[in-house]
Design a protein that fits this description.
The protein has 368 residues and is of the alpha/beta class. The protein has a domain of 203 residues: TIM Barrel (Alpha-Beta Barrel). Helix content is 43%, strand content 14%. Strand 8, helix 6 and strand 9 form a beta-alpha-beta unit. Helix 3 crosses helix 5, helix 6 runs parallel beside helix 8 and helix 12 crosses helix 13.
């Protein structure tokens, strides 16, 4: 099993912005040194807690300070951007990284962004589909372009001068385009069926209960079958909030404490999602009342915290519920204590993942 990194990020909105940007860059740089395979960066424009406003720009700032890790948009919120601009920016970024890039896309989930961009009352899923169809057409069809849609029309026909390259677009480094990744949130997601049918790769969100994460794989397999292809668990990425400490007392205080950074993350996220009618994401059963979705309950069920051995055991138990997957995605949280945050990533990469993979290998061998 590979391991990757994902950050929204989400910081206390009172923290200094320059400092948190440096912290977010340091986390990805550390992930690169520790052998993380990929790192995905979120973006939001109208949120003082989630403060990376353009994930492509942020990724560009890391090109020369990372060497092995693949960097991914996590995600470009397509309804909030013009498809032509996205096609050009992503193609250039793919070249700057010489293919060390993953293209994460979504309709965008932050309602204040949707309102700010004038999309609050629009069908943002339809906008998302139209946008990615335009982007792929720009990368795979011959100019001049004449793309028509409900939300965007893109043409270079009137001004096309092929002998000097005018009216053309830059094509990505990876052919025909970078791997496309989507974040899967809803239990029994219908969207992942369509994504799988198109060959896109799924990341199951870190704030879902294990039983809802498990519901994603059959839907993904269904989509691959529709494309006459076999679903490969190695393509499935699953995110979790993980804190690894040298002792259980620290793990409990920092990872599970109500004044810790993990609690801050879920408190903010719950406020947004529960208010948006999505409390079921945090429930262990759909019949569970919304009143049962307390911060203490969510931290207890969704944060994996402990010493190395304890975290390995918890991850093996989690995997028994979800089934096999190819990449465990470590969710980044605010570095309230930089020493603990760095140590957690180090222990995760150096000790948790090797022990986890040995246990998985031994279990597979015993089953054979």
């Amino acid at each position: 099993m590979d391991y990757a990194y994902f950050t929204m990020p989400l910081h206390p909105f009172t923290r200094d912005y320059t400092t948190t940007l440096k912290e977010d860059r340091a986390a990805v740089q550390l992930a690169d040194k520790l052998g993380f395979a990929e790192a995905y960066i979120g973006e939001h424009v109208t949120d003082r807690a989630e403060t990376i406003t353009d994930c492509a720009t942020f990724i560009a700032s890391l090109i020369d300070s990372t060497s092995r890790i693949k960097l991914g948009t996590g995600t470009v919120n397509l309804p909030n951007n013009h498809p032509l601009q996205v096609a050009g920016t992503i193609a250039m970024l793919d070249h700057l990284l010489e293919g060390r890039f993953m293209f994460g896309i979504s309709p965008g989930g932050l309602l204040s962004d949707a309102e700010g961009f004038g999309n609050l009352d629009n069908d943002r899923t339809a906008m998302f589909v139209e946008a990615i169809n335009h982007i792929l057409a720009l990368w795979t069809s011959e100019p001049p372009f004449e793309l028509k849609g409900k939300y965007w029309n893109i043409s270079t026909r009137k001004t096309f001068i092929p002998e000097i390259g005018q009216g053309m677009v830059v094509l990505p480094y990876q052919k025909p385009h970078p791997p496309i990744v989507v974040t899967v949130v809803a239990p029994f997601s219908k969207g992942v069926v369509s994504a799988a049918e198109r060959g896109w790769l799924p990341i199951s969100a870190n704030f879902l209960q294990p039983k809802w994460v498990a519901s994603h794989w059959p839907m993904y397999a269904e989509g691959r079958a529709k494309a006459d292809a076999k679903a490969n668990p190695k393509d499935w990425r699953v995110a979790r909030s993980i804190f690894v400490a040298d002792d259980e007392a620290t793990a409990k205080r920092y990872g599970k404490g109500l004044d810790g950074p993990y609690a801050h993350y879920f408190k903010s996220l719950m406020r947004k999602l529960v208010a948006n009618g999505r409390a079921e994401l945090f429930k262990t059963d759909r019949a569970q009342p919304d009143s049962a979705v307390t911060l203490e309950f969510v931290i207890d069920t969704l944060v994996i915290a402990g010493t190395v051995n304890s975290v390995v055991d918890q991850l093996l138990s989690f995997r028994e519920t979800t089934g096999d997957f190819g990449t465990l995605v470590y969710a980044g949280h605010d570095w309230k204590d930089e020493k603990f945050a760095r140590r957690s990533m180090e222990l995760f990469a150096a000790e948790v993942m090797p022990r986890l993979n040995r246990a998985i290998g031994a279990s597979a061998a015993a089953a054979d």
